[in-house]
Design brief:
47% of the residues are buried. This protein is α+β, with helices and mostly antiparallel strands and 327 residues long. Helix 3 crosses helix 4, helix 7 runs antiparallel to helix 8 and helix 9 crosses helix 10. It starts with a helix and ends in a 5-residue tail after the last strand. It has eleven helices and eleven strands. The structure holds cytidine-5'-monophosphate. The site of cytidine-5'-monophosphate (C5P) has 11 residues, from strand 2 and helix 6. The site of cytidine-5'-monophosphate has 11 residues, from strand 2 and helix 6.
Length: 327
Amino acid sequence: MPNLELLAACVSRLKPPGVSGKIRGQMVRAGSVIKLEASAKINLTLEILGKRPDGYHELRSIVMPVSLTDTLTLTSTYAQTAMTITVSPGVDLTKIGSVDRNLAVRAARLMQERYRINAGARIHIHKRIPIGGGLGGGSADAAGVIRGLDRLWELGLPRDELMALGAELGSDVPALVHGGAVLMAGRGELVSGLFGDAPPETCAGFWLLIANPGVMCPTPDVFKKWRGGLTAPPSILHNMASSIRTSDVSAAADALYNGLQPGVFESYPDVAQTAARLHEAGCLGVLLSGSGASVFGLARDEAHGQEISQKLGSGLWHVLVHTCPVV
Ligand code: C5P
């Protein structure tokens, strides 16, 4: 059983990113290429503990990356940072905002400036993660750029510093820079591995279906509408952590919790209907992912997941995925 008090105490308050003298003005060769997969995430629990003076919400969440990924190809260049995007079916290219506001581009520019890199980066992203779907797609791309450029530009920064860079970009980025099953706290910037440095041997992960009704639930609006009310049972964190440890999917289904879900289901009936369809198709437990609009449902195993997928048919965008290794 994870000691959650200890776990909470271990959540590291990230230091502001220091700029190490030896890497200022880093010389970089143009033409080097790195390819990597940036995983989407789901929040298996998401407790909203209250509003903070800075306007954000204090939260506590167990986050796991899943095998739905965007593919990033990073090339160092002597030109300015630029980005191109291709998409898989189901990803709406029109939902991608301007290049200058794109988190992946902002991540590259932040690192370029902070470490005075004498090069740019050409970023190509092949997107499979639905945009604005509560799956952390934009954050995953930014986390991938941070990890990739650290290697491409041979910076060799410690993970805490990479996570702190991520925290400057968005609340979900540090968890995805960390990778694996994590406990996320604060506004999202306080991240620790759920099982420390010793991943449980019994932890095989879960199969799940992710479905997206194609509507946008803007995160600021969803948080603004949050009204508190019912709080999660105190045991929720402990129960979810121990079900991940033992790969007990029924116990995980019972421990699913998202404090944003009631407000989202009320404001976006399509999302509530999508959740109902996952239930009807046989998922063991169904939950809103992050601030929506995607929902996910747990399956007993891969075969059960395929059975559910067939029942859902082709009318609803969905994908069968597996959680990534815990660390
Ligand atoms: O940090 P990020 O840019 O991803 O957050 C998007 C928006 O979601 C914030 O502007 C805020 O309105 C809301 N948010 C929040 N509390 C958090 C995380 C996000 O209120 N912990």
